[in-house]
Write a structure and sequence with these properties.
alpha/beta; Rossmann fold; 2 domains; 7-stranded mixed beta sheet; binds 5-O-phosphono-beta-D-ribofuranosylamine
């Protein structure tokens, strides 16, 4: 992992596809003194992503890419990351699966948040599958990204209890609140802070 010396924050890029509420919580976290990271770049595959407006508000550079030609685009992104001296990547609701080639170039430096207690319920439509299986608990996980979907080493998890009349929507909302707390904690943990 990248070493945090306490002098300079580690320049970080956040990749999003949608609302960006995790991005918002990471930006807030990055501004506190004890944060080892600064958010210097926002990357999205979706020009309509609501979270992009956080770039403007917080004066963070943002870039949107069309991932149709994934390999080519990933290489473009890699050079932009280099240009901006980005040393760490946080995926936050980013709906594209990055290639092995890309991940290997940032090995051990890409984190993701997933709304389930991994290794259970990898992939999409998590909350509905959890409810269908009548689980008593669900939660969220921050993990390192490797080339297999939602399968990298787990950094931290938070469990939440499923209520009697839980719906997909209420569960998503409940877990999201925890995600916003968990991601910063997991980042601190990766730096042994
Ligand atoms: C979160 O639930 C995250 O775990 C999942 O997608 C959602 C993104 O939410 N991967 P937001 O864009 O951060 O609000």
């Amino acid at each position: 992992m990248v070493k945090f010396t306490g002098y300079k924050k580690i320049k970080t890029a956040v990749f999003i596809s949608g609302t960006g509420s995790n991005l918002k919580s990471l930006i807030k976290f990055s501004k506190i003194i004890k944060s080892p990271i600064s958010i210097n770049l926002i990357i999205s595959n979706n020009p309509e992503a609501k979270g992009l407006k956080l770039g403007r508000i917080n004066n963070i550079k943002k870039k949107v890419f069309n991932f149709k030609k994934k390999y080519k685009v990933e290489n473009q992104i890699l050079s932009i990351l280099k240009e901006h001296e980005i040393k760490m990547i946080c995926l936050a609701g980013f709906m594209i699966v990055l290639s092995k080639n890309f991940i290997n170039k940032f090995r051990g430096k890409i984190l993701n948040i997933h709304p389930s207690l991994l290794p259970k319920y990898k992939g999409l439509n998590t909350h509905q599958r959890v409810l269908n299986n009548k689980e008593k608990y669900s939660g969220c996980t921050v993990h390192f990204v490797n080339s297999k979907l939602d399968s990298g080493k787990i950094i931290l998890q938070k469990k939440v209890k499923i209520s009697k009349n839980e719906t997909k929507k209420s569960l998503a909302k409940k877990i999201l609140v925890q995600e916003h707390k968990l991601y910063p904690k997991a980042i601190l943990k990766t730096f042994n802070l």
